[in-house]
Amino acid sequence: MPSRADTAPQAIASLLSQVDRLWLFLDRFAAVPSYARHERLRVLRSQEVGDMHANGKFAGLFVDQEPCAYFAGVDDIESPVDYCETLGRELRRHRGAAVGVHAAVLHRPVTSYARDMKVLHRRSAQARAAGVDLLGSDSLAFHTDTLSFDVRAWPDVNMVDLSFALEARRRGVPLVMIARAAHWLRALAEDQEDSIWAGVLRDDTRQTKVARELAALPRQQLPRRGARRLSYRSA
What we know:
Elements: H1 8-16, E1 21-26, E2 41-45, H2 46-49, H3 60-63, E3 69-71, E4 77-78, H4 83-93, E5 98-100, E6 103-106, E7 117-120, E8 130-131, E9 134-135, E10 140-143, H5 160-170, E11 175-177, E12 186-187, H6 196-202, H7 205-215, E13 232-234
Parallel strand pairs: 1-2, 1-13, 3-13, 5-11
Antiparallel strand pairs: 3-10, 4-12, 5-10, 6-7, 6-9, 8-11
Helix pairs in contact: 5-7
């Protein structure tokens, strides 16, 4: 987002050395900023691929369909130097799953998305991996031969965590929150007025409807452990 110009360069720099290629979605930018120029970086502009807002973090999936490990990131979080190494290891451990840091579990019945959700925040320490209902799309990874989709087919924008969770559950892909130390990810800014969560707190009607749909589907068991090798991509 243009309003994240103060944090985006640092967030991008924290990922670039860890991936083979980084897809950067520029949402309604009048011009490509200077920090978006690097040999590993590929720019996708909303003017060219569609006005998909936050869904654009997965736009790289329909542009480049070569099998890979796909890591999601955002413009206001600094990733640690072992971000991809750690999530990649967890993908090998939990074969057939998507793994991530920020997560949530829905309370049943779901009467309100914002209220009926236990958040396992990215800043908190977690002693062990656990199956969850949602992973934060700011800090997750999956293999594209396990889960691949086209965000242009999603009916909603700026509901990425819910849409991703629904996509995974429909395809039988478990979501796993990884164990980690407190503050392993560092927020460069929080609680911005134009954040998606601020909008949810004002009105979560649509999110609640999708959360009920998600909660009605059975959660998959954690997968068996295994190993594989693929190239690394980020968005």
